[in-house]
Amino acid sequence: MEAAVFYGIGDLRIEERPLPDIAERQVLVKVAACGICGTDRHIFHGEFDANPPVIIGHEYAGEVVQVGKNVHEYAVGDHIAIDPNMACGICRPCRRGQVHLCESLSAVGVNYDGGFAEYSAVPVSQCFSLPQRVSLLEGALTEPLACCLRGIEQAQIKPGDIVAVIGGGAIGQILAQLARMSGAGKLILSDPIPERRAMALQLGYVDAVVDPTNEDPLKTTGALCGGADIVLEAVGSVHTTQQAVAWAAPGATIVWFGVTPPGQLTALEPNLVFRRELTIRGARINPFTHSRAVALLASGRLNLEPLITRRISLTELPAILQAPPGRDTKTVVIP
Ligand SMILES: [Zn+2]
Ligand SMILES: [Zn+2]
To answer: Are residues 60 and 120 in the same domain?
Structure first.
């Protein structure tokens, strides 16, 4: 089979590999689609630790083509989405039920072979059944959706809240859809790329969009007059973490969802946090949110397929990871 194997910084090779052997509690999945995530880019550039040589790719869905001899939960022909994240179960956070904060967290597509390949051997514990009516393409978005559900949990939106989403990439668009579903009274999305703003307006879940390079939503558009009750930062830059605080209304909750590079610092005025009694929260991966992500996909109430703006083959992947992120909302590899 063809697979994208990461050997070290800047070294991703498309190779012919033997079909993986499956253990007795694993299934063999024929990968239908595997999304490219910021983490894959970070791994490629040496900004996120992986275990090379390893097949990367952790946002994927596919069809079961073989089951291990001790697998009773899944059968050949089943459609499944993968939860790549694995907790150790014995560290302090794990034993307190905070598996996403596990001290030895590992992941399929980072530490173990993942989804940028034609086939993938996956432990039963990481498989989630997808109903046939959910396309496998949309199914590849289960993992980012599950992570966004954690972000929404952390935001604690109340019906009627004014919500601002900073960033209109796939994560920002998913967060916006979930914020609308959670009862946002007024929802604005900010992104400098016109196609992303247009997408949010066209798909119909936001009330207004902002081009942050030209407009200050607190002044010019009036869209955020008085600030937002909830600000969801989905970019991961120092500038936008500060913008998120600036756009917060008194009493607001800010979720810094975007991943900034380790070691970078942001300036924050503690007096402002005091005066406005602001809450700033993080949101990390998908603690127990994967089954809800599948249920939401099955409900048909989200519209995620339009977020996939580009489909590529495995051979195109190294060049895509090498280049800076483009204007596409979500690029998916079809092995
Ligand atoms: Zn990811
Ligand atoms: Zn642990």
So the answer is: yes
